């Protein structure tokens, strides 16, 4: 007589998500339990909640809102706090996370809904320092000047910034009480000031860093460089811009 087989319970993943219905409403937490699949990341888990928006106790709820795009740690859209650490949800693998997995929105930026945040502060900082290469028109300008290979190599590292906002989230000097533009914008000044065309506006960018909320707002906590998902040498950029703004200040004093 064949032995009766005991059903093996399917593996599940437990989530605790901090939610917020609107910018004005109070945050609250909901627990979810979803089926486990190999190689899941936090985004795929949130998609399971979206397909079947029920809490762990079976209650009906609304799908969790979040942002994502590339799903390969390039766009920076899916930044959130996972188990207390600001990081990219697409790169956060379920197998490497302690459960229950606690997911929260980044709090340096205003919350729009659930895990969706408003990064206007960061984008305004990039506008302020003119983090772009100006051109005179849409016509063909021909090949631009070449960069030395030694300069190009470290400039490429700075260009990896995906405006994810993690460096601003972990910086103790970026909050609602300060106007500090944050490490991302400072590093972009270094990047565009090093460009053969971008350096035409070098002094203008340095003058912006010397204004209120500029580089003087950095407290050198070095949280930014430790947390950057792209390993960008943010503190090196800040040190270099400190040096360049000091030179710029002396030149202005001397009328040069």
TrEMBL record:
GO BP terms: respiratory electron transport chain; tricarboxylic acid cycle
Co-factor(s): [4Fe-4S] cluster; [2Fe-2S] cluster; [3Fe-4S] cluster
EC number of the protein: 1.3.5.1
Ranges of residues in domain 4Fe-4S ferredoxin-type: 152-180
Signal sequence annotation: none
Single Gene Ontology MF annotation: 3 iron, 4 sulfur cluster binding
UniProt-listed PANTHER family: SUCCINATE DEHYDROGENASE [UBIQUINONE] IRON-SULFUR SUBUNIT, MITOCHONDRIAL, SUCCINATE DEHYDROGENASE IRON-SULFUR PROTEIN
NCBIfam families assigned to the protein according to its UniProt record, in alphabetical order: dhsB, PRK08640.1
The protein's name: succinate dehydrogenase
The species this protein was found in: Paenibacillus chitinolyticus
């Amino acid at each position: 007589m064949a032995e009766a087989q005991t059903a093996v319970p399917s593996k599940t993943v437990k989530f605790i998500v901090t939610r917020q219905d609107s910018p004005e409403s109070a945050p609250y937490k909901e627990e979810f339990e979803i089926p486990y699949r190999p190689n899941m990341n936090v985004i795929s888990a949130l998609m399971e909640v979206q397909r079947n928006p029920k809490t762990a106790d079976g209650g009906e709820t609304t799908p969790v809102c979040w942002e994502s795009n590339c799903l390969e740690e390039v766009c920076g859209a899916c930044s959130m706090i996972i188990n207390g650490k600001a990081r990219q949800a697409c790169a956060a693998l379920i197998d490497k996370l302690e459960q229950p997995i606690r997911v929260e929105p980044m709090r340096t930026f205003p919350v729009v809904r659930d895990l969706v945040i408003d990064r206007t502060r960061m984008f305004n900082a990039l506008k302020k320092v003119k983090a772009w290469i100006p051109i005179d028109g849409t016509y063909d300008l021909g090949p631009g000047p070449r960069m030395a290979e030694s300069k190009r190599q470290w400039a490429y590292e700075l260009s990896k910034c995906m405006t994810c906002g993690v460096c601003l989230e972990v910086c103790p000097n970026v909050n609602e009480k300060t106007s500090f533009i944050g490490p991302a914008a400072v590093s972009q000044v270094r990047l565009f000031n090093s460009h053969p065309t971008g350096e035409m506006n070098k002094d203008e960018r340095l003058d912006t860093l010397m204004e209120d909320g500029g580089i003087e707002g950095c407290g050198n906590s070095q949280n930014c460089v430790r947390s950057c998902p792209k390993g960008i040498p943010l503190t090196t950029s800040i040190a270099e811009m400190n040096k360049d703004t000091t030179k710029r200040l002396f030149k202005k004093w001397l009328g040069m």
